[in-house]
């Protein structure tokens, strides 16, 4: 009888453990399913918000370039001075009985002396952002004036080609002015291969004062470069940026640093000055526009961080409810986890109607998290519940906001929250394991109670 009783007790014990195992597996499946669904919901919330706010695409960027104007790369004036000489070429015949053939040809000789005496350039560039789709792209308007003094250093009259390259083939140029020695020469210039070309004779020692001005517009960057391999003499370029302060300056790749940077008279802009004399350089001079704040940028940044920290919140709820001995810990974790996920969904939905992130956070996000924290404190009485409730707004609002606004230290905030979570979990484990486990009788066998 004792053996039968012991065997029955063993079977009952195996049945109890098997039942618990199946129950744990079922809870694990439910938790994993809920976790997967809620994470998918959060990712869809972020993706939907990003699609409708500040989504920069190559197609839209090229469309804006087509409508407004492309990046402008302004080349320096090119001057070709030359004269043509007619020569006679004698070609002897292999048959000595036949006379030699005389053929005339024209040989072009280029003057190698550098004709540039000085250059004075003034460029005013104002930002003019362009909106396409849900994003804003950096555009600008320019007012340019380029002035050169040239001289024919040769002792003979030569032909001259003054070639001014336009900065963008598809750009619009308004108010175009071209003057040579105070005379209007625009009608004499040809537009060929994206450049303005003036052909004229230049007398020995003649000095030419050339002035070209126009208004235009472009995207992203403005760049100036002396492309011809020559000595740069008495060169000054002043780039006026009335709405771009010094702290926001950024230069295109391959640019040299300005010789001098001054603040504009009103303090809101800056003036970049490039001075070169007896220099040889093919480095450019110019400016890259800063990245513009996109619509919903703050909300997007916070939502991106919230997706990462929501996993920590979900883990906090499961561990906190379980170790604190709350009834229906798994169900409570799923419900509270869903509540925090839906709070982020409402943040994305109401961000456009409640003055962006800060208005929505104050009216929607903060009250929801405070309400959830109050419920947690009611479910788990005492210090355990209060500490768990305190961590909800900390991980759900404060940390995502700090990480979203401080891109350089995002991992720092995540690691600090993880450290607090581990400290809280360790405290709960120590408190639970330090209590003696009650036992209950089962036939002739005993087993620890799981609570």
Features:
451 residues, five-stranded antiparallel β-sheet, 20 strands, eight-stranded mixed β-sheet, alpha+beta, Immunoglobulin-like, 30% strand, disordered C terminus
Fold and architecture overview:
- By secondary structure, the protein is an alpha+beta fold.
- The chain folds into 2 domains: 2-53 and 296-448, no CATH class; 71-288, Immunoglobulin-like (Sandwich), CATH 2.60.40.
- It is built from 7 helices and 20 strands.
- 27% of the residues are buried.
- Mean pLDDT is 89; it is low at 441-451.
Total DSSP helices: 7
Contiguous uncertain segments of 5+ residues? 441-451
Q: Can you name the CATH architecture of the largest domain?
A: Sandwich
Overall geometry: elongated
Radius of gyration: 39 Å
Kindly state the number of beta strands.
20
Classify the secondary structure makeup into a structural class: alpha+beta
Number of domains: 2
Task: State the CATH topology of the largest domain.
Answer: Immunoglobulin-like
For the termini, the CA-CA separation is 32 Å
In what range is the share of β-strand residues? 25-35%
CATH top level of the largest domain is Mainly Beta
Which series of helices and strands comes N to C?
HHEEEEEEEEEEEEEEEEEEHHHHHEE
Going across the biggest sheet, name each strand in turn: 10-9-13-7-4-15-17-16
Characterize the biggest β-sheet. 8 strands, mixed
> Average pLDDT value?
89
Q: What is the percent of helical residues?
A: 40-55%
